[in-house]
Amino acid sequence: MGEMVRFQSNGKQTPGYLARPGTKGPGLVVIQEWWGLVPHIKDVADRFAAEGFVALAPDLYHGQSATSPDEAGKLMMSMRIDEAERDLRGAVQYLRNHPDSSGKVGTVGFCMGGALSLFAACKNSEVGACVVYYGGHPNIKPDLNNLKAPMLGLYAERDNFVTVDVVRGLEKELKQLGKQAEIHIYPNAEHAFFNNERPQVYNEAAAKDSWKRTLDFFRRELGSGVGG
Known about the structure:
eight-stranded mixed beta sheet, globular
């Protein structure tokens, strides 16, 4: 369904995977896990396009990807957060200006990408809605004071990386700051429960429920896609 494109960011061209619905709809920046812009993330972008969203998955590793946790960890830790944020800012602008886009843009990310989804929303007031799937990165510290967009957070009870205590702490801070945020923790689910290409952690019930919540949230905050 989609195609590789290039968009302006950091004073250069950044690659990304663009999936279009064939009709006008809200834009979504789909942000990769630590593996990179792998087939699973492209498939997620395709799924969003099938639901009426113009989905762009920027390649934050600029052509690199990983197949082992060791490789992925090295790529994640060597990624410059300031450059990634500018790539995401460029992706948001690309979608705002795309002829198929309604002009409204949200961010959604998984694992490392989940942390970047919230980080980008805190940095860029043009982000109209933010979804975080079990987002975590040791070097990403979102300035929650600056968060303007509503947030949907989707987490796992048996996550040893983004623990329930960490999630409850985030939830408490968002509440104290008066931010609009919904937090859901799926019982017995593990980190990366949404990734259907990793059967050792994939949780079908949690994945289906979180997908429905995500679509409902974006349609409410950004406008309707298909069936909205």
